[in-house]
Amino acid sequence: MKIKSYFSRTVEDAMAMASQELGPEAMLLNSRKAPPEARHLGEYEVVFANGIPANEAAEAVPETQTSVSTSTRSPVGDQLSRDVADLKKELEGMRRTLTRSVMAPPQWVGASPDLSDAYGVLTGNEVGPDLAREIVQSAESRVIGARPPQKRAPQRLDKAAFHRALVEEVESRFKVQATLGRGELRPKIVALVGPPGAGKTTTLVKLAVNYGLASRCPVLVLSMDTYRVAAAEQLRCYSAILGVGFQVLETITALAQTIEENRGKELIFIDTPGFGFGDMDSASDLAQFLSTRPDVDPQLLLPASMKSADLSRIVDSFEIFRPQRLLFTKLDETGSFGPILNESARTGKPLSFFTNGQRIPEDLETASRERLAELILTGYSSQARTAA
Ligand SMILES: Nc1nc2c(ncn2[C@@H]2O[C@H](COP(=O)(O)OP(=O)(O)OP(=O)(O)O)[C@@H](O)[C@H]2O)c(=O)[nH]1
Ligand SMILES: [Mg+2]
User: Does residue 263 lie within any of the structural domains?
Assistant: First the structure.
């Protein structure tokens, strides 16, 4: 199988190029406006595969993983995307440093530079000020024992011990549950819900490969996204490449029936349309179905780069789906991870997975306490190590 990106002035031109090179079986996987950094190559980036029968695809799973992941974007595009992501992170780091240097520490830190540094790092990473204060004060108490502020000595704390206490305090403020499905119920049925463009469809494919195909589990992919023709087509192509069953369903009745008919599967993934604030009304039937079935695990996908206030509004509006867990996407697109902590601390909902790039299936990781604490304390950790 061969997968290749074509850059051209129109999608039709790309189709002509692909069918000439890959043959009449060429299958369109994805098309989008070329990113600005690749625009000189053509207005559109269109990805094609030459067709392969589903059974062949199933047997070729390990290779498929590599080929899907490495070839859906051109090497030039990949490098440019990485450069842009690196630049974004660098800018984010500069913004954090500036924020720390211009913001006066709050009075409660007293004369302690350690508390002030830790508070600055947390708020610079966009941890909410109240939560940051709680974390810093609790970490201090762990190291020196609870003391009234006026009795605090202004001298430096044991840096390494304070750093450990900070990590423990951050880690204690969120839960992790990197699993799919509801308990022991089979099949495991996972519905990915979230705002438009959050990464639902690509994350579904990543999960299907890593948790279905990698362990040779029978997987079924269902799409309830009938709003846009291209949406279901993209998933149909991926499912064909992976050799897993796929159906587009128009109604809740059809969805319920299809689940019933596929009780023998191990994993069923349901892709849903992206619902924005304006269309939550149109989500109500689907939400009612998914949230009331005891065997469905609705996971809410949220872009990590979103501001805390927006995340809270979205999480509240998606409560109609009663999501069991939060799955943060696009960690590679931000340098401030505080909003993830703010939201999981606010809602008490466990974190399941993180996605950190566009490559399928690699850019998926299980959420972990250590990883998030490290990201949240970026900046402080390195200072602590230098001083230790
Ligand atoms: N940088 C980055 N991009 C991602 C990540 N996950 C998904 N994307 C990209 O985000 C875009 C939208 O992804 P989709 O999976 O189509 O998002 P969706 O939620 O299904 O979108 P709708 O169906 O339109 O609501 C695509 O270009 C993906 O490649 C990620 O972790 N990092
Ligand atoms: Mg989608």
Answer: yes
- pTM, 2 dp: 0.76
Number of domains in the chain: 3
Our answer on whether the CB atom of 363 is closer than 6 Å to any ligand 1 atom is yes
Instruction: Give the ligand 1 atom nearest the CA of 81.
Output: 1
| CA separation for the pair 258, 43 (Å, rounded) | 40
Atom of ligand 1 nearest to the CA of 355: 31
Which residue minimizes the CA distance to atom 7 of ligand 1? Answer: 199
Residue 222 sits in the same domain as residue 307: yes
**226-263 residue pLDDT tens:** 877 678 888 999 999 888 999 999 999 999 999 999 99
As a whole number of angstroms, the distance between CA 170 and CA 373 comes to: 6
Query: Do 228 and 353 fall within a single domain?
Result: yes
The distance from CA 83 to its chain's CA centroid, rounded to whole angstroms, is: 20
One domain, residues 161 and 243? no
Closest ligand by atom to 357 CA: 1
114 and 240 housed in the same domain: no
Q: What is the pLDDT of residues 300-341, one digit of tens each?
A: 999 999 999 999 999 999 999 999 999 999 999 999 999 999
Q: Is 342 in the pocket of ligand 1 (CB under 6 A)?
A: no
Instruction: Give me 329's structure tokens.
Output: 């996407």
Answer yes or no: do 155 and 198 share one domain.
Answer: no
CB 299 within 8 A of CB 190: yes
> What is the extent of the structural domain holding 154?
103-173+379-387
In angstroms, the CA 245 to CA 302 distance is: 27
How many angstroms does the Cα of residue 250 sit away from the middle of ligand 2? Answer: 15
Q: Is the CB of 274 under 6 A from ligand 1?
A: yes
Domain shared by 280 and 354, yes or no: yes
Answer for the pair 29, 3: CB distance below 8 angstroms, yes or no: yes
